[in-house]
Q: What sequence folds into this?
C-alpha cells in the first residue's frame, strides 16, 4: 500500500510539473515576436488576414500557424525576395506591413523620411531586364514583389521602403534608367507591371 501511495504521489507531482513547464513554454512563445509553425495567437490571425488579402491564401483565419499558413509564408517570402525560412520575423513583418515601424501604423519610426518619387514597374522577365535577364537583383535577392530599383545617390541600397499604392519593399536593385528621383517597382508578373505604368507616389524611407 505504501508503495502504491508513493507511486501515486510521484505521478501527481509529475503531472503538475509538466503543466507548469507547458505554461512556461507558452509564456516564452508569447514573448517571442517571431511566428512559426505551431504558434497560436491574435498575431497569427493578423498574419493570416494579411496573407489572404495579398493573394497568398492560407485557408481559414483561425489564429493557428499550421501547414497552410507555413506554405503561404514561404510563397510570400520567395515572391518578396526574403530568405525563405517559413518563420515570420522582423523582415517578413516589415514587408507585410505588420510592424509598428511600418507606415501602416500611426507611428513613424525616428529617422524616416518621405519623398515624392516617380515610380515605374517591372518584373523578372527578360524583356524588363535586358540584358540581365535571369540574374538576381543588385543585392543578390531573387526578383519579385518587394524588390525596388533605386538610384543609390538618392536612396541608399538596402533601405526599407514603403511605397504608396504598392506596399513595403527593399531598395535592392539598380537600373540604367533609374536616375535621380526615380524608382522601379518589381511585380510578380509583366501584366501587373504594365498595369502600374508610371506614377508619382509618396515613398517613406527607413
A:
Amino acid at each position: 500500500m505504501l508503495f502504491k501511495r508513493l507511486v501515486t504521489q510521484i505521478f501527481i507531482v509529475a503531472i503538475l510539473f509538466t503543466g507548469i513547464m507547458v505554461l512556461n513554454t507558452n509564456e516564452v512563445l508569447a514573448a517571442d515576436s517571431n511566428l512559426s509553425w505551431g504558434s497560436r495567437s491574435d498575431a497569427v490571425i493578423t498574419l493570416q488576414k494579411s496573407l489572404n488579402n495579398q493573394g497568398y491564401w492560407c485557408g481559414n483565419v483561425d489564429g493557428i500557424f499550421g501547414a497552410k499558413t507555413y506554405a503561404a509564408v514561404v510563397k510570400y517570402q520567395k515572391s518578396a525576395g526574403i530568405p525563405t525560412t517559413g518563420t515570420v520575423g522582423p523582415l517578413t513583418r516589415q514587408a507585410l506591413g505588420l510592424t509598428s515601424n511600418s507606415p501602416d501604423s500611426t507611428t513613424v519610426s525616428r529617422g524616416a523620411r518621405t519623398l515624392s518619387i516617380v515610380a515605374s514597374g517591372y518584373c523578372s522577365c527578360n524583356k524588363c531586364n535586358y540584358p540581365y535577364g535571369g540574374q538576381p537583383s543588385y543585392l543578390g535577392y531573387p526578383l519579385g514583389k518587394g524588390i525596388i530599383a533605386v538610384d543609390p545617390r538618392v536612396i541608399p541600397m538596402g533601405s526599407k521602403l514603403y511605397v504608396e499604392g504598392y506596399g513595403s519593399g527593399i531598395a535592392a536593385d539598380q537600373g540604367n534608367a533609374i536616375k535621380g528621383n526615380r524608382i522601379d517597382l518589381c511585380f510578380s508578373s509583366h501584366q501587373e507591371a504594365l498595369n502600374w505604368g508610371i506614377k508619382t507616389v509618396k515613398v517613406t524611407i527607413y
Observations:
- The chain has three domains: 1-31, 42-96, 113-205.
